[in-house]
Amino acid sequence: SSSIFAAVEMAPRDPILGLNEAFNADTRTTKVNLGVGVYFTDEGKIPLLGAVKAAEKARLEAAPARGYQPIEGLAAYNNAVATLLFGKDSALITNNQTLTIEALGGTGALKVGADYLKRLLPNATVYISDPSWENHRALFESAGFPVSNYAYYDAATRGVNFEGMLADLRTMPAQSIVVLHACCHNPTGADITADQWKQVVTAIKERNLIAFLDMAYQGFADGIKEDAVALDLFAASGLQFLVSSSFSKSFSLYGERVGALTIVAASKDEASRVLSQVKRVVRTNYSNPPTHGGAVVAAVLSSPELRQQWEDELAGMRVRIREMRSAIVEKLAARGVKQDFSFVLKQRGMFSYTGLTAEQVERMKTEFGVYAVSTGRICVAALNTKNIDYVADAIAAVLK
Ligand code: PLP
Questions:
Q1: Where are the domains of the chain?
Q2: What residues does the Aminotransferase class I/classII large domain cover (predicted)?
Q3: Mean pLDDT along residues 245-256
Q4: Active-site choice (214, 279, 310, 365)
């Protein structure tokens, strides 16, 4: 008899992780990987932040027992997350209208949120931006939702097609779920303004939609508080909504899987009932979250010194990315590139949607060993003072 797996087909490779495999197999010493969404130092290393190192050292020395965590994770962590999202004077927090659970990265938060929403609103459609983080569609589809796009990127202006976005919001059926990038839109780097966020909140309220804010890059645009503009406006709106957040990038803790799902309910009583349901989703998936990453983040956020150190280190990452944005624009101009690349300076977060075509990206790979996503997205946070001239050469060459 044949194997039960005999007819199993090979699944398509993940486009970005597949790029990594190709990069790793490339033997050219000059190769550069601009594909992944990871922050590297000027030395091309993933940093271990000083604040994290200090908290880890203290934790190791305390030699804590490795008991189970509560289903929702560490309370100190969850409280710190809510405060980071909504600010320490938030009325939502003092009213106990929010609930936060520690999740396995931003991805885990999105999936727990999606699974919970599927139970709450089994017939809803999920809308994601066009384009969006490549995992959004698959993740919500795997939770059982149909997923559609709303207009977002405008290739002509390299900004947001805000009229189109608003028009799409205004035609969505009531109780549709709208996934919104809270800041540093991935992949385009194009964000909407505070005034436009106000209009989005109004449209969501008028159409009775459910916002699911994805906050994976808090602190990478202008700062912790500044990057929470969308959250502040939703918090003030009186709406119920969901937030997934992640410390993968802002704490450089990618592999520790530290994220959170926060839900804003109408009252304390409602929040505790919703929490009880979210806990059922967690319990039947992975029971309870791992300890280390959350404990480290909680320790950093609750110590004034470590928190300051972290904010300084985060600012350092933000500033270095901005320097790389300016440098690549200058270096392309210096190489006689005619196209106006000043849009790169306006884009926020780790990425730039360069406008390079799939063919040009392919040429950069084969001729130079410079790897980017076929959509033309490059990770600006992977540029450094040593590789940027070579990358500028490669871009200039394929544009000629
Ligand atoms: N959401 C967006 C928009 C992202 O860009 C990412 C990571 O790249 C995530 C969620 C997932 O974050 P995590 O690695 O913490 O799961």
A1: 15-49+307-399, 69-302
A2: 30-395
A3: 98
A4: 214
Q: Sign of dihedral through CA atoms 18, 149, 176, 348?
A: positive
pLDDT beyond 90 at 1: no
Output the pTM of the full model. 0.97
Q: Which of 249, 279, 331, 365 is catalytic?
A: 249
| 313 close to 341: Cβ distance less than 8 angstroms | no
Active-site residue 133, yes or no? yes
252 touches ligand 1 (CB under 6 Å): no
Tell me the one-letter amino acid at 124.
A
pLDDT of amino acid 345: 95
Cα–Cα nearest to 82, from 293, 302, 280: 302
| In this structure, CATH architecture of domain 15-49+307-399 | Alpha-Beta Complex (3.90)
What does the mean pLDDT of the chain come to?
Answer: 97
Q: Which two tokens stand for residue 214?
A: 């994805």
- The protein residue whose alpha carbon is closest to atom 7 in ligand 1 is 216
User: Is 214 annotated as catalytic?
Assistant: yes
**Does residue 254 have a pLDDT over 80?**
yes
Tell me: the pLDDT tens digits for 371-399? 999 999 999 999 999 999 999 999 999 99
pLDDT-based confidence at residue 17 (cuts at 50, 70, 90): confident
CA distance 59 to 271: 32
User: Does an H or E element contain 261, and which?
Assistant: strand 258-264
Is residue 308 within 8 A of residue 54, CB to CB? The reply is: no
CB 199 within 8 A of CB 168: no
Domain 69-302 CATH assignment equals 1.25.40.10: no
Interface pTM, i.e. ipTM: 0.99
Fold matches, 15-49+307-399 and 69-302: no
Half-sphere exposure in the Cβ direction for 58 (13 Å, CA): 13
Single-letter amino acid, residue 244: S
State the helix-helix crossing angle for 194-207 and 229-237, rounded to 10 degrees: 30
Q: Mean of the pLDDT values across residues 28-50?
A: 96
What whole-number distance in Å separates Cα of residue 241 and Cα of residue 243? 7
Q: Tokens for 204? A: 């969501």
Q: Average pLDDT, stretch 124-128? A: 98
